[in-house]
Design a protein that fits this description.
The protein is 34% helix and 18% strand. It is an alpha/beta fold. Helix 2 packs parallel to helix 10, helix 5 packs across helix 6 and helix 9 runs parallel beside helix 10.
Length: 337
């Protein structure tokens, strides 16, 4: 439920309410706005059956949240969440472009791609140091060495980096070396991993599972927010359907649906969704038109020799052209790139 405090409520009124909620075995999330303070209550509402919260000093109203995803819902927060990643804002009017290689391979290659996508207008570098692969014989990533390459690329370009974590035991490395921790599609319902990243305030990019519903994605995000981390963005990356012409089916309907149901930023990954480089540009444009707050695009200087997903990676020159076209689409829907 949501407890809205009166404009004149003092800090000690909020502290008193929060302490009482904790005594009852409930968690409290306090959000201080310009005019009012809102307290989100997490836990079993039945514990409040004999406790009329409306009588507490400073309380203006008490409203139950019907959606099972409490903190993620629009009911809890009406305005859009904007996440600040080292000065790069994700959410709001400006569209954020994250670009780079699917997998980090060599230092020189990683830095080179970073410089090219940055020059073209991307603001965040993506790169996989740990790669979850369907086949145990496929390239699994460079691990911590790959994270070090991303750190060097960040040092030379100033771009924040996003990379995928696979194991909660590696959280220390990601807290130190990544600016955004990505939870991949295969780990969307790895609830222990979600809890782990939820214990820190490091921004999290949460990808939709291969066969997950929109509601399941929101509940996975709820796991992270319920632990205290409010810096979560949702990512639509295509779902598995009966269609085999391309890799996945990009569910662009999910973009406006998620933005209506939740205040969290929504990112679209057209590269993994389509699996084909020639389909990335049209679906990236469509994603912006649908209301996406950002894109996650794979770029590689020599896709033919890429160690991972070269068939869906676009070359830097094509990425530059795409950025120019995306700017036009953004302007058409009253957004900025």
């Amino acid at each position: 439920m949501i407890i809205v405090m009166k404009p004149e409520a003092a800090d000690h009124d909020v502290d008193h309410l929060v302490e009482r909620l904790r005594e009852l075995g409930l968690k409290a999330q306090v959000t201080k706005g310009e005019e009012r303070t809102v307290v989100g209550v997490i836990g079993d509402d039945r514990l409040l059956h004999d406790q009329p919260l409306s009588v507490f000093p400073g309380v203006e109203s008490v409203t139950p949240i019907l959606a099972p995803w409490k903190l993620v819902s629009r009911e809890f927060q009406k305005h859009d969440t904007v996440i600040d990643v080292n000065g790069v804002k994700i959410g709001g009017k400006k569209i954020t472009i994250m670009a780079g290689p699917c997998a980090v391979e060599k230092l020189e290659l990683t830095v080179g791609i970073a410089k090219e996508v940055s020059a073209a207008g991307a603001s965040i570098l993506r790169g996989g140091a740990y790669k979850p692969r369907t086949s145990p014989y496929s390239f699994q990533g460079l691990g911590q060495e790959g994270l070090d390459y991303l750190v060097e690329a960040r040092k030379q370009t100033g771009m924040p980096v996003v990379s995928e974590i696979l194991d909660a035991r590696d959280i220390g490395h990601f807290l130190e070396k990544a600016d955004i921790i990505q939870i991949g599609a295969r780990n969307m319902q790895n609830f222990e991993l979600l809890k782990e990243v939820g214990d820190y305030d490091k921004p999290v990019l949460l990808k939709r599972g291969l066969s997950a519903t929109v509601k399941e994605l929101l509940l996975s995000a709820e796991y992270i927010l319920s632990r205290g981390n409010r810096n979560v963005m949702l990512c639509e990356r295509g779902i598995r359907t009966y269609e085999t012409l391309y890799r996945n089916t990009l569910d662009l309907t999910a973009v406006p649906a998620l933005k209506e149901m939740s205040h969290l930023p929504v990112i679209v990954d057209p590269s993994h969704a389509t699996g084909k480089w020639n389909l990335v540009a049209p679906m990236a444009k469509a994603a912006i038109a649908a209301g996406a707050d950002g894109l996650l695009i794979e770029v590689h200087s020599d896709p033919e020799f890429a160690l991972c997903d070269g068939e869906e990676s676009i070359k830097p020159s094509r990425f530059k052209d795409l950025m120019a076209n995306l700017k036009k689409v953004a302007e058409a829907v009253d957004r900025e790139l």
